[in-house]
């Protein structure tokens, strides 16, 4: 009896392989691919509260907090009390975070180019489109507090 291929297993294998590439390229800055993505998203959204940032990253708050700590310790991000609601927290890039992100973008570009040279430009675009569909799909797990996505 042949077992059907597991979508989750296949995606995780591919993600680990791609993450290795990006981690290797970002290593000169002592930055991980996950940290680069987080810095990029904070830069894109501007000062942003934790919940919208977690939603944009499809990540639960606890995981986001765990991933923010090293960036805060390195003074790449600032976590401040919200202006309107003192219970909320605003995340923003510091000047050191902006500088690191600018340097990291050049290394990220090399990783991006290597991926596209290996997989193909059209195939890479099609893959991104398909993965966006997966990320946007309602798979019945929209309550992230219960599923623990990271």
Observed structural traits:
single chain; 150 residues; mainly alpha; Arc Repressor Mutant, subunit A; 7 helices; 3 strands; disordered C terminus
Describe the structure.
The protein has helices at 7-26, 33-45, 50-57, 61-73, 95-119, 121-136, 144-147, and strands spanning 48-49, 77-81, 89-93. The protein has 150 residues and is mostly helical. Strands 1-3-2 form a three-stranded antiparallel β-sheet. Mean pLDDT is 90; it is low at 144-150.
SSE pattern, N- to C-terminal: HHEHHEEHHH
Instruction: Bin the helical content.
Output: 55-70%
CATH superfamily of the domain at 31-132, called what? Winged helix-like DNA-binding domain superfamily/Winged helix DNA-binding domain
Count of strand segments? 3
> Which class of the domain at 31-132 in CATH terms?
Mainly Alpha
Please state roughly what percent of the residues sit in beta strands, choosing from under 5%, 5-15%, 15-25%, 25-35%, 35-45% or over 45%: 5-15%
The computed structural class is mainly alpha
**Regions with pLDDT < 50 over 5+ consecutive residues?**
144-150
Shape: globular
Radius of gyration: 17 Å
Q: How many angstroms separate the termini? A: 33 Å
For the biggest sheet, the summary is:
3 strands, antiparallel
CATH T-level fold name of the domain at 31-132: Arc Repressor Mutant, subunit A
Instruction: Provide the CATH architecture of the domain at 31-132.
Output: Orthogonal Bundle
Average per-residue pLDDT, rounded, comes to 90
| Cross-sheet strand order for the largest sheet | 1-3-2
* Number of discrete helical segments: 7
């Amino acid at each position: 009896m042949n077992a059907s291929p597991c979508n989750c297993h296949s995606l995780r294998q591919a993600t680990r392989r791609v993450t290795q590439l990006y981690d290797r390229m970002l290593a000169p800055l002592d930055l991980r691919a996950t940290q680069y993505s987080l810095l990029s998203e904070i830069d894109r959204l501007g000062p942003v509260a934790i919940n919208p940032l977690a939603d944009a990253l499809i990540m639960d708050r606890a995981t986001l907090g765990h991933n923010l700590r090293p960036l805060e310790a390195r003074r790449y991000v600032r976590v401040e009390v919200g202006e309107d609601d003192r219970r909320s927290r605003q995340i923003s890039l510091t000047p050191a975070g902006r500088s690191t992100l600018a340097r990291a973008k050049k290394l990220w570009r090399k990783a991006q180019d290597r991926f596209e040279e290996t997989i193909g430009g059209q195939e890479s675009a099609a893959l991104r489109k398909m993965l966006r569909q997966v990320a946007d799909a309602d798979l019945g797990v929209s309550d992230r507090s219960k599923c623990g996505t990271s």
